[in-house]
Write a structure and sequence with these properties.
Blueprint: H1 2-14, E1 17-24, H2 29-40, E2 47-53, E3 62-70, E4 85-88, E5 107-112, H3 117-124, E6 127-133, H4 135-143, H5 149-159, H6 165-178, H7 183-196, E7 201-206, H8 231-234, E8 248-252, H9 264-268, E9 274-279, E10 283-289, H10 291-294, H11 300-304, E11 310-314
Parallel strand pairs: 1-4, 4-5, 5-6
Antiparallel strand pairs: 1-3, 2-3, 6-7, 8-11, 9-10
Helix pairs in contact: 2-5, 2-6, 4-5, 4-7, 5-6, 5-7, 6-7
Bound molecules: iron/sulfur cluster (2 copies).
One iron/sulfur cluster binds at residues 250, 269, 271, 273, 289, 295-301.
Length: 315
């Protein structure tokens, strides 16, 4: 445990610790990540970013959540593709997604399963440190429902550097109260949290083949968003650049190749005109914008770019 604390602490100090979870709607994955983020923000030295990723989820549909922690400011806002820690909240989800995708050899896996770490690592072909906890069975005892998230939360609270059980417990209960759960149920969750401590099993395993869990090649971001397909946006004669402030133009310049691929400009441009190419190291690299036809100089990209690569210039 000492070694793992040291390794995670080092990542936290020097870069960004990235955690990704996969579960199914109703499995409590997002509550777990929210509660972890709640604990982390108590530490004034930590930067925290947490967000869920799911569609209009019906119960049982796959859900994914991301959590970034660092002692340095976090500039990325993209999904996590190469997590240091991968959480599998529900075995059912493994039929739909590869929860271990992109995890480097020697990464950390947290699994809600009755299997031993060796059995789980063999089944899912994992190489790294594997923790398992039978959260569903524990929850059956206290909640009469197979909801493993509280046990997984307790396990993570014991691994993450700087986390302590007391604060973790308080945050879990706070989030449950916020969801207006009856007091008796909140109390049962607290008992479940306490009973989960020390119930996990851990082993270092090596069952992945080199070709397992590789990231798929970048396929682009898919269709334009609905706003980007409006009649005005597609018009050959009425370009939205006509709405720009007269006498000024947007300039993108990156002479020192400092774009970090955070994607803020791509996501925030209402005209969807930021141009970029795939980049092995950064994911994407911005190369410019389709200024002449569609840039209305809204200044979103200027404001949001952490590297200040966009400017409004007089022409
Ligand atoms: S100013 Fe930037 S964000 Fe706004 S339309 Fe132009 S390129 Fe897009
Ligand atoms: S241009 Fe700026 S905002 Fe856009 S991806 Fe690069 S660093 Fe991020």
């Amino acid at each position: 445990m000492e070694m793992i604390h040291k390794k995670l602490g080092q990542i936290l100090n020097e870069s960004v610790l990235e955690i990704r979870g996969d579960g199914r709607a109703g499995s409590g994955l997002l509550l777990t990540l929210q509660s972890l983020a709640g604990v982390a923000v108590e530490d004034p030295r930590l930067y925290v970013q947490e967000w869920p990723f799911f569609s209009s989820a019906r119960k049982g549909a796959p859900t994914r959540g991301f959590l970034r922690l660092s002692r340095k400011s976090i500039e990325k806002a993209s999904g996590i593709t190469t997590p240091h820690i991968a959480i599998m909240m529900d075995e059912g989800v493994t039929k739909m997604v590869d929860f271990a995708e992109g995890v480097q050899r020697g990464g950390l896996f947290i699994l809600n399963t009755p299997r031993t770490p060796e059995e789980a690592a063999k089944k899912f072909r994992l190489s790294g440190r594997v923790y398992t906890i039978d959260g569903d069975a524990l929850a059956e005892k206290f909640l009469k429902k197979p909801l493993g998230n509280v046990s997984v939360f307790a396990l993570l609270s014991s691994i993450l550097p700087g986390f302590d059980f007391k604060t973790a417990r308080e945050h879990l209960l706070h989030h449950l109260q916020k969801r207006r759960l009856p007091e008796a149920l909140v109390e049962a969750n607290a008992e479940l949290f306490d009973a989960s401590l020390g119930q996990s099993k851990m082993a270092d395993c090596d069952f992945a083949f080199p070709s397992d869990h590789l990231l798929p090649a970048f396929q682009g971001y898919g269709e334009l968003m609905p706003g980007g397909q409006s009649r005005l946006r597609l018009s050959k004669t009425h370009f939205t650049s006509a709405f720009a402030r007269t006498g000024f133009e947007l300039r993108f310049s990156d002479p020192e190749n400092s774009c970090n691929g955070c994607g803020h400009c791509i996501i925030n441009c209402p005209e969807n005109i930021i141009q970029f190419c795939a980049d092995e190291e950064r994911g994407v690299k911005v190369t410019g914008a389709d200024v002449a036809r569609y840039c209305k100089l809204c200044r979103e990209c200027i404001e949001i770019c952490p590297k200040k690569l966009f400017q409004e210039v007089a022409v």
